[in-house]
Fold:
Amino acid sequence: MKTTSNQQTALALNDRITLVSGTAMPPLGLGVFQVEEGDDLIAAVKSAIRLGYRSIDTAAVYGNESGVGQGIREALLETGLRREELFITSKVWNADLGYAETLAAYELSLQKLGLDYLDLYLIHWPVEDKYQSAWKALEELYLAGRVKAIGVSNFQTRHLEKLMQNAEITPMVNQVEFHPFLTQKELLDFTRKHNIVMEAWSPLMQGGLFEEPLLLELASKYGRTVAQIILRWDLQHGVVTIPKSIREARIAENSQVFDFELSPADMERIDGLNRNLRVGPDPDDFDF
Ligand code: NAD
Structure:
């Protein structure tokens, strides 16, 4: 296993990106947004772990932490892996932002997952006037050794700056929408400068990029699928990526991105697709 900083490219699925906490974060994980509790979810988590994934990204609001926990337990039994070899992320939902509320939400997520710690706990959205007190709770959990790493999600530069003004600990990760139509250049530069690892949600733009001519051209040039071209582009930017699928063949396909390299010119061409286009809500204008 090799560890890299957040500005280098992971070379294998079992490489790790080192967060400032020293925590080793897998460069690629399985996302489970919009996957309901049940057999498909459990099977997807098990397939992913069997295929070499070690990171699973869930959230309280996805309503599927119990199934994720079940999948994890079954996979550990089946593979003989230890819990410590996995990297499990969850997120505190907006309604639970606040010091005491966030501490309680963490306990509830652990209980549903059946785990006694998380590897990464994130503030899901930057709800004004609420994320600072929630951050105090995350800092406390981290300092008490209850969680391996803490971070945020959907934070723009201004949210990060405001949080960091009074924070004891700088967020270690910022998970944001990131794909070739939303390349987030300024935010990526800012996070790199502050040693915050950027993590891409909806890296495949929820399926919205598969007909893009340049990506089809590159898929053909490199003998890969469009999904693999996009995920490789994430990794070469030092961005952690968490594509979602419940189909075993796609879960496998999405992890086969460590044995080819996009040229600098092709990286730039993909960067050039940016349209500042979102599939999800805008962190500067949301009302939930
Ligand atoms: P995604 O970009 O990962 O796209 C998923 C879609 O692409 C699915 O419909 C899937 O069937 C399809 N797909 C996956 N692999 C494919 C392949 N190889 N070929 C063809 N189609 C393929 O979308 P997402 O689920 O929104 O994002 C990924 C993860 O990011 C989520 O599951 C969740 O864990 C996280 N997320 C976080 C936030 C946040 O606010 N923090 C928001 C959205 C998503």
About this structure: The CA atoms of residues 35 and 41 lie 6 Å apart. The chain is about 40% helix and 15% strand. The two ends are 41 Å apart (CA to CA).
